[in-house]
Amino acid sequence: MEQRPHLILLPGLLCDRALWEPQVAGLSESCTPWVGDLTRDESVAVMAARVLAEVPAQRFALAGLSMGGYVAMEIMRQAPQRVTRLALLDTRATLDTPEETARRQEFMRLAQAERGFAPITTRLVPLLIHPARVKDEPLVRVIREMADRVGVEAYVRQQHAIMARPDFRSDLSRIECPTLILCGREDALTPLHMHEELVRAIRTARLAVIERCGHLSTLERPAEVNLALRDWLVGP
Q1: Cβ neighbours of 206 (radius 10 Å)
Q2: Contact present, 121 and 143 (Cβ < 8 Å)
Q3: CB–CB of 180/133 below 8 Å?
Q4: Rounded to whole angstroms, how far apart are CA atoms 12 and 143?
Q5: Residues in Cβ contact with 103 at an 8 Å cutoff, skipping those fewer than 6 apart
Q6: Would you state the pLDDT for residue 9?
Q7: In the chain, what are the domain boundaries?
Q8: Quick check: pTM over 0.85?
Q9: Is there a contact between 202 and 129 (Cβ–Cβ < 8 Å)?
């Protein structure tokens, strides 16, 4: 009997396992999902090394969303031979603009001053999800609860890691495994053109665009994302 492939799922900033819960539930029949913890380290390189040390399989399919995508690209630098398939969701290879860095610094100051995330998530939610979903209370509650569980100290570590991350563009041409690039059509943080750049740079990549969807595609449009991931997992 053929063993089911392991699928490693890496969350984004201020996110935890709940970001991938629809995928864990929807894909478990065809793979063995495992969600990494990216809350403990202050650099993307160390996050990647920790995932590689803790993952319960020598070889695996790898999917990361947003910050999780940065860690996934770093894993491709550190141990490409261990990754059988790669999925990069709502992410990018480029660095932040000065304006984005300033916003991160402002949000860190605000989180430390307030000792909580209510002011930040109020400002972040319109950037994270499709405009039609900003008053979707169950969805917004998941986002707020993830932030509260991650906590201020881990959030600051993650922001420092993101701001110090490398520019991954020069590494993309070395990726050889089947690669899915997926984004929400209305992703305000990592727009479609950034994903088209990834597809042009990765020889084995194909693009999936999720309609009426923002940055947190796994939560906003889980059925469509699961379909794309299932095709990617079983594809050639």
Answers
A1: 15
A2: yes
A3: no
A4: 11
A5: none
A6: 99
A7: 1-236
A8: yes
A9: no
- Tokens coding 214: 């923002």
Average pLDDT over the chain reads 96
Residue 160's alpha-carbon distances to 122, 156, 176, 190, in angstroms, are 22, 6, 30, 19
Give the Cα separation of 183 and 171 in Å (integer): 20
* Architecture of the domain defined by 1-236: 3-Layer(aba) Sandwich (3.40)
* R_g of the chain, CA atoms, integer Å: 16
What are 45's two structure tokens? 């390189």
Would the CA dihedral through 21, 22, 26, 31 be positive or negative?
Answer: negative
The answer to whether the CB of 155 falls within 8 A of the CB of 110 is: no
Range 105-130 average pLDDT: 89
* Tens digits of residue pLDDT in 41-80: 999 999 999 999 999 999 999 999 999 999 999 999 999 9
Residue closest to 12 by CA, chosen among 175, 110, 137, 127: 127
Q: How many CB atoms lie within 10 A of CB 147?
A: 22
Count Cβ atoms within 10 A of the Cβ of residue 116 and give its class: 0-12 exposed, 13-18 middle, 19 or more buried: middle
Closest to 210 (Cα-Cα) out of 193, 190, 187, 194 = 187
Q: Is 9 helix (H, G, I), strand (E, B) or coil?
A: strand
**Strand ranges (E), the chain:** 6-10, 32-35, 60-65, 83-89, 179-184, 205-210
Would you call 3 exposed, middle or buried from its count of C-beta atoms within 10 A (0-12, 13-18, 19+)?
Answer: exposed
